[in-house]
Amino acid sequence: MIFFNALRAILVLMIFTVTACDFSHKNPLDKKQKSASGEGSKATFYAYFSNGDSILNGESGPLGLINKKEFQFQVCLKDYAFDEELVGHDFLVMHNDVKLAEVKTKDQGCLHWSESIEFNPVMKAKYIVFERRIVSKGVHKGEQVVQFAVNPWNEFDNNLKIPAVISDITHDIPEGSLFGIDGEQYMKGEPLALQKLEADDRPKLFIKNQDISTLVNRAGFVKQQGYKIRFSMQFEPKVKVKNYNGDDSYIDITQGDFVAKAWLLQRDETEGGGRLYQVSQSEVEDSDKVKDKNLTFRI
Q: 210: Cβ–Cβ under 8 A, 6 or more apart, which residues?
């Protein structure tokens, strides 16, 4: 019997979390009423619609996993006094005190902008809430705050059809979403966020489609040492992660350096149980790079 311990040489893997798939709708007029009576009451406009989506932009991190996505956001505005769509007006999109975009409203009073988001691809899927301030730069006054629940891991949940973006204008923010610094740490897979994960939620190296062959070199018999045995092993390395519903999902590893170590073990079966011990004098190892999603080791 041979035990192999495949180790990656470059990256320390990390994870993410989320909850149920019930995305409740709500009346956009609730946002208008909130703006009139709450923190946005000084604004002369309100947001009546917003949404977003994402695309993979082809950038890969260690192990060939996509770790950056392009998100597109849309917010549509109306004049509060006359309830008319604002077309051709200038606005700033702000995150805290940082200007993300300077845009002009177009048809139906909608403004559009995009953001490039880096994330840890092997975190358990979860929604992270982005809060954006829409600040008037022209004849209108004030600002409105819009929240987007963003899930950059939705590409790995194709069967679940989880939306990449949920807006607080048209839906309730999903239960279990992370806000502020907690969300930023989680999305990056920082150690403090990882410490809060259950062991079963952590990403793991997964081996699929093993193809192991054995060659015994009988001409190489050495007295008191036995035969030399050569093994060849090929498999597809993957990362096992948790999707939005907490089920296992598998991501292909397309690049990276790996090392396989092997020991020859023998099991003696007895009535009281078995005993396993090492019969090879030392461990042997081989290294390989991922090629066409496969690793091959000859030991």
A: 233, 234, 235
Per-residue pLDDT tens for 224-275?
A: 666 667 778 888 888 999 988 888 888 888 888 888 888 878 888 777 677 7
- Record the pTM: 0.75
Rounded to whole angstroms, the Cα distance separating 46 from 228 reads: 77
Lookup: tokens for 29? 């007029």
140 phi/psi in degrees, rounded to 5: -80, 165
d(CA 130, CA 183): 9
Q: Is 282 exposed, middle or buried (0-12, 13-18, 19+ CB in 10 A)?
A: exposed
Contact 123, 187 (CB under 8 A): yes
71 close to 119: Cβ distance less than 8 angstroms: no
How far is residue 108 from each of residues 35, 116, 128, 206, measured CA to CA in Å? 20, 25, 28, 49
SS3 at position 37: helix
Task: Write the CB contacts of 12 (distance below 8 Å, at least 6 apart in sequence).
Answer: none
